[in-house]
């Protein structure tokens, strides 16, 4: 909010409480400067804005060393109310520019969608769809048929099921396979992914009794052998997606667990976390398992996210044995975790890109961002640094590191080129706050008292807005 303009009016009123001079709502609304606002906004919203401005003013006037404010200036009130209205009318969920270099930033909504996915959402959003309608039979169909063909084609899975997110997929799978039974898991895989997703808690809520085997650093096949019995509903393997264990460690490969599961007639559930469909070794990101590899190793059920490395919308994807997935579809929980048409549209279009791996690498924003080299990023950052310097600012390029984020490739080296800007008359913290207050807000890092901008996650069409905001923030 802007500072009240100074005025002499306060002084003229002597000892009277200036708060009583704030004009009444009706006088404000009836005044000339408020006429455009009355035309622009619903009356109730306008009233909220006026009340907020009056309230702020009352508080400011109650403080010692009260500010001189133009209590009779209706133009001033109209300008303040207009700002307040803009804040009220601005949506809560807003686009931001991600200059952090964290590609899958959960706080920033994870994966940006490919153009094809955005177009698909647009196509189905405004009208009716065959979401649950069988066009051939002319009767009720199932929302769970969409994406199944594509997912099977791309991963080799016998069957597929899409739900709200991967946490939902894990809950549904565990509840279906192991409710009231035991689920056997290595102590090395009792992980936490972000604030509220912890494997032991999720297992408890899904109704499975967790049976921990092995130790934090080592689990052997014999540990599982001793634990798996008639009460076992599932053997669970969770990908340690957001950290690595090194040193004196060992765990049992998925294929080995599958052999044990087959011997004992117990299904093996593999939570992959990220849903990688392409091996990213060639762009320098080895070690993240693909869905295809997990299925080839024989996992009965594989779960993964739609909006991590897959680069699609928030969704949980369950792949695996048709008989087990049929039970999941019949589970009443599935209804509570179901996916909507916008998600299915975006997911289907994203998956379709993977039919041509080059198209996926070219068009899925997450894959494209991950593949950018420091030289490519530097070529985009250099002219921006040049323009900032031409405006008299302290800006330079320096090598730095980006991150995959979203609990993927925790130890990946993702070298980048940072654009470092030293604010002129304020601290880096203040400048960073001003960047966040920009429209659109810019999310940036601070490195050694400078604003650090990583263009890995900034789209070329966002560069002008970024530059304008940086100039304003660092001036
Ligand atoms: C991210 C992740 C989850 C949760 O997935 P959401 O799609 O965020 O619900 C579960 N398990 C693993 C291993 C993960 O990495």
What this model shows, in words?
The protein starts with 8 loop residues before the first helix and ends with a helix. It is 41% helix and 17% strand. The model is unreliable at 6-13 (pLDDT under 50). The chain folds into three domains: 15-89, no CATH class; 97-105 and 369-474, Alpha-Beta Complex (Aspartate Aminotransferase, domain 1), CATH 3.90.1150.110; 115-356, Aspartate Aminotransferase, domain 2, CATH 3.40.640.10. The protein has helices at residues 9-12, 25-29, 35-40, 43-62, 74-89, 115-125, 148-155, 166-178, 199-205, 221-227, 254-264, 291-296, 322-330, 332-336, 341-353, 357-363, 365-371, 374-390, 428-436, 463-474; strands spanning 97-98, 102-104, 133-134, 139-140, 159-163, 182-186, 192-193, 197-198, 209-213, 232-238, 268-273, 301-305, 316-320, 394-405, 414-422, 442-443, 445-447, 450-454. The chain has a seven-stranded mixed sheet, sandwiched between helices. Strands 2-14-15-18-17 form a five-stranded mixed sheet. Pyridoxal-5'-phosphate binds at residues 165-167, 170, 193, 197, 238-239, 241, 271, 273-274, 305, 316, 407.
